[in-house]
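Researcher: I'm preparing a figure for a lab meeting and need a structural model of a single chain. I don't have an experimental structure, so a prediction will have to do for now. The sequence is pasted below. Please return the structure as tokens so I can convert it later.
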Amino acid sequence: MKGLMILFRRELALAWSGGGGPLLACGFFLCLTALIPLAAGGDPAGLRPIAGGVAWLALALSSILSLERLFERDLEDGALDLIALGPVPLELVVLTKAKAQWLAVGVPLALTAPVAAITLGLPPSLAPLVALSALIGSLGFALTGALGAALALGSKRGGLLIAVVVLPLFIPPVVFGAGALERAVNGLDPAPALAFLAAYVLFAAVVTPFAGAAAVRNAQG
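Model: Understood. Here is the structure written out token by token.
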């Protein structure tokens, strides 16, 4: 347990120190949501029907920015070999890295999401729902992103490969998250869509540690 806590604190420190931490992701998120209204003509009536989907798409793209260094930096400096030889199983290492990624990047993005969604035309009364769904969805992005980072470990163009791997896997949470907002806008209960979103996160939490650990072992071999 002590080794796990040391690893978790290390991952949080690296996430904050590497390239500005969540500031880069949040800045990209806000810039993207500011550019889309300009490209669409800035008509609030035209933006409102797609505001939820656009906000979720921007959230997904912003979640990819810091994934490349999740395992690659440890492989380059030899720390990954030491971690693999340590007392913490690789499955828990992958899960810990995903959790640290969520806390360092996903949570700030989720807190930024209401501002972006309101900017795109969603009613301010939906801000709590936007934040809640983004918190759940960003956890799914972190878990799936950790798997993509592990699969791309050691490749020459890791960032591009991660995007190719994880973007199709990001489709379900984007659909469920945007669906929850759309249902709320139309006066319907968003709970079913949130339940599907939570189910995706649980599935990712089960699959990612084992698949990610296998990918790391393969990269080391």
